[in-house]
Design goal:
Elements: H1 15-22, E1 30-33, H2 40-53, E2 63-67, H3 70-80, E3 85-89, E4 94-97, E5 103-107, H4 113-120, E6 125-131, H5 166-172, H6 175-186, H7 191-201, H8 208-216, H9 224-239, H10 242-256, E7 257-267, H11 270-282, E8 287-289, H12 299-304, E9 312-318
Parallel strand pairs: 1-2, 1-6, 2-5, 3-5, 6-7
Antiparallel strand pairs: 3-4, 7-9, 8-9
């Protein structure tokens, strides 16, 4: 059993469950942490690998960490440097960090993980992890993800790559777009009412506080926190085209996994979970479902980390 890793601003969810599912894969090939974030799950997997395999000279790269957010990657690099970590810029052809890394980090969208793996020549791929939640280290006010602090209404994972901010998208959306997004990506029961009010006020919304105050005015106090979480989650998913990327990423994961390799996905809302069930149906006969019922965090974990409460983990194994 792997120990829960040290916490740097963000507490990764279901860490022990992730390590147990990947345990048969450790030391047999490369595991792709397709949402490496600040490196929480990767840190735990490296510790589990070292505990299982011990020191056997230079075992080569065991974990490939991918993330679209350069700020999270910088934190992951700092956290994982002690294990032997290398940051790779594929387009520039440059590397920095350890010359004999256990972990390699690459800035990329997980939709492109097959391209990244092929260009780096890593194989066999024995595991892919996709934790679809936002990291606590991304909740600084200037990122625009948090409804608890005032800041620009941005919400882009990669602010260096262009793309429309949340403010741009809200101001160009139709009322039907807003209602659908809140319903499909936020599971928000009051999607219609909130979507219409955002549409009416969209020219007067400029910051996260403006949006949070507007939404909070529409629901009873006891429901405000969860409603705000659902609304901000839905808009974040739209801004970053997360469902489209997830579908591409899941297909890429199935392609690159070697027989016996395992795919673990941690979802936080029903639209994400539907994508995982779709990939299982589409590749029936090629994938084995290791979790007929999704794994949920224990009450103890939720008590320590309330943001884990909506997490559900599904694990699949490639059999062909």
């Amino acid at each position: 059993m792997a120990a829960v890793p040290e916490m740097i601003g963000h507490v990764p969810v279901l860490v022990n469950e992730v390590c147990e599912i990947f345990n048969p894969c450790l030391g047999t090939g490369v595991i792709v942490d397709a949402t490496v974030g600040g490196g929480g799950h990767t840190s735990a997997l490296v510790r589990a690998f070292l505990e299982k395999e011990g020191s056997k000279g230079n075992p080569g790269v065991q974990i490939l960490g991918i993330d679209l957010d350069p700020e999270s990657l910088a934190i992951a690099f700092s956290r994982l440097e002690g294990f032997g970590c290398q940051m790779i810029d594929i387009d520039a052809g440059s590397k920095r960090g350890s010359a004999t890394p256990l972990v390699c980090l690459v800035k990329a969208n997980y939709a492109d993980m097959a391209t990244v793996v092929n260009r780096l020549g890593f194989k066999p791929i024995k595991g892919v992890l996709m934790d679809l939640g936002i990291s606590s280290i991304q909740l600084q006010p200037e990122r625009g993800f948090s409804f608890d602090a005032d800041g620009p209404l941005d919400m882009r994972f990669d602010r260096t790559g262009g793309g429309k901010s949340c403010l741009d998208i809200i101001r160009r959306a139709s009322v039907r777009d807003l209602e659908r997004w809140l319903k499909d990506y936020g599971d928000e029961p009051a999607a219609r009412r909130i979507g219409r009010r955002i549409y009416s006020w969209r020219r007067r919304i400029n910051t996260t506080r403006d949006l949070a105050d507007l939404v909070a005015s529409l629901v009873p106090a006891r429901r405000r926190h969860r409603t705000l979480a659902r609304v901000f989650q839905a808009l974040r998913i739209v801004v970053n085209r997360e469902i489209e990327s997830l579908r591409c990423g899941l297909e890429a994961a199935v392609r690159i996994l070697a027989p016996g390799g395992r795919l673990v996905v941690i979802c936080y809302q029903s639209g994400e979970d539907r994508c995982v069930k779709e990939i299982l149906r589409r590749h029936k006969g090629c994938l084995r479902n290791l979790t007929p019922k999704p794994l949920r965090p224990s009450l103890g974990e939720v008590g320590l980390n309330p943001r884990a409460r909506s997490a559900r983990l599904r694990a699949l194994e490639k059999v062909l």
